[in-house]
Design goal:
Layout lengths: L30 E8 L2 E8 L4 E3 L6 E4 L5 E4 L3 H16 L3 H7 L3
Length: 106
């Protein structure tokens, strides 16, 4: 089966199992967190890479098969992007040592 490479955050309308998230390949048993449009409702559900189904939010029970979702988007890159954005915002908000020295009149 050919694995599709999708950009994190891209909405995918699955037409086959090949459209589902690829196994990251870091651990033996893996999930890919996804935002899923299911029966008109948005919900967070992990894609179980081993059983190729969406599991419940606790990752212990089957929630639905791939062909039961209207669309999904992988959140795998969102955590990294969020951490980078927070780090950049904090770096801009924190005064540098040079700024502190000027403010203190030294």
């Amino acid at each position: 089966m050919k694995e599709m490479a999708h950009t994190p955050g891209e909405w995918i309308v699955p037409r086959s199992l090949a459209d589902m998230p690829a196994k990251p390949g870091v651990y033996h048993y893996e999930y890919v967190d996804c935002l899923v449009l299911y029966k008109g409702e948005l919900c967070l559900r992990p894609w179980n890479c081993e059983h190729q189904v969406f599991d419940d939010e606790n990752r212990d029970d089957h929630f639905c098969d791939w062909d039961q979702v209207e669309a999904y988007r992988s959140l795998s890159g969102d955590l990294v992007a969020a951490k980078v954005a927070v780090a950049e915002a904090r770096a801009k908000a924190l005064p540098t040592q040079e700024t502190k020295t000027k403010e203190d009149g030294e």
